[in-house]
Specification:
With 567 residues, this protein is an alpha/beta fold. Helices cover 39% and strands 24% of the residues. The longest helix has 15 residues, at 3-17.
Length: 567
Amino acid sequence: MAESLRQKVVDLLAAEKGIDRSKIAGLLELARSRGKSFGAVLVEEKVVTQQELLATLSRGLGLPPINLSRYTIDAGLAEVVPERIARQYRLVPVSRLGKRLSVAMEDPLNVLALDDLTMLTAYEISPVIASGADIDQAIVRLYQRPVEQIEAFLESVPEAAAEQASKEEEVVDLTAFGMSLKRTSIVKVVDLMISDALKGRASDIHVEPYEDAVRVRYRIDGALVEAFQLAKRHQNAFVTRLKIMSGLDITENRLPQDGRFKVRMEGKEVDFRVSALPISFGNKMVMRALDKSNLSVSLDQLGFLPSSLAAFKKATGRPYGLILVTGPTGSGKSTTLYSVLNQLNDPGRNILTVEDPVEYQVEGITQVQVNPEIQLTFASALRAFLRQAPDVVLVGEIRDGETADIAIKASLTGQIVLSTLHTNDAPSSITRLVDMGVDPFLLASSLIFVAAQRLCRQLCPRCKVPETPDPARLKEWGLILPKGAQIFTGKGCPYCRKTGYRGRFAILEAMLVEDKIREMIIAKRPPDEIRTYAAGHGMKSLRQEGIEHLLAGRTSLDEIVRVTSEE
């Protein structure tokens, strides 16, 4: 709620309801701490009902209120007001008559929003007042592609096998204009699915054939959610279309295949990496969205706590040495390393990477993809890199002793070497490398920083509410919270697709390798001993980092327990 409208609400409440201004000041502070609008907090604290708030605003501003939950919005209005604008200004078009467009707004005093709408639509804008919750739900109904719409398209598809669609343009256009050029068919159904997944911030699309149906799921914030199901009769057409887009062999149904395709949507291009896996009931297709905009994220934007961020930056500022990021698949290791490369990428440095596969093409960086069939491995690529006079080297993953040995020797000869390793915590990485055959003395000389990383789901800012933790559960999980600590959980709302979470951030166990730890590495001390020393000298465990984010209201207790282990 913008400042002008907030002040108007304050004045109206003081005048009409006789509410003391000192109490209003407390409510304003509560709204800021919860990250919610002032109006939403007034309703939550039962100062006024939603209806009373709208009626008060209506009288004070001279604008009519509207109950969007009882209002059917013409689907054609979605093409008049872009979704980006609707979400940015929290508004939704409700009707048009001649050159006049009625728009429901939570903040009808937002002059910037009204000016932008006038310029974009060429309509005269007539604002009406609606609650923020009603507007959120109306945006979902108007812009997100419902399952019913996809099913309606499927009804128009013949029961026969796939359309004989030739391989079309290299980039699939998912704008409203681009999709309208295609006839109503399985082609459009696939386009709608991809568009819906991207609008929902999905990182993956899973198409899974079963005996009597095909299930489609999206991975959003690390968790799979079911989107819709296809009738079995549409399976061949659907999978064939995906294979054609991805450049796969549509006649091969016995062997796994890998492909790629690119889509254009809302002014940006998104690459998809596709995997087709033969299973009992057909081909399971998994499409991973590779959004290049993630590459521009700096270390400061990944959500690290200040102490961990400072340790990471100190390590990347060294002239040479080995930096490791560890964690399971899907913990954001690659994004973190790309953020470091983004920070180091300048014309004065020669940066080389060897990856499996190369997911993002980055300007200014030389990238090599491994190919074991021709003996191009991580180790052989690294050997070649050392003859290219690199300043920074990224190794996608240290998988064996040979790769580890060359990476460490490279870091000792004047290069920064970045890589990943699959271990559960930072100190275990040392033992893992020694077990691979790395000389402890060389490891102690080269290793400068190890980070264990996890991704936590962030609470939805629009539906998070205070939670009182159960003491029995805290004891069971081995958690101790400060006395009087305030924590939150997510109720679920249309904005977060009823999950209670929207977005993710990284938590980090950051271990700078200093002299005492080097001595412990050479002496082959066990990981628990190294952990105890590091914890006593500034290293925070993943669980400790998670609790700090929990107390800051960024995530929930359940999420911290899910992604971190008991100390």
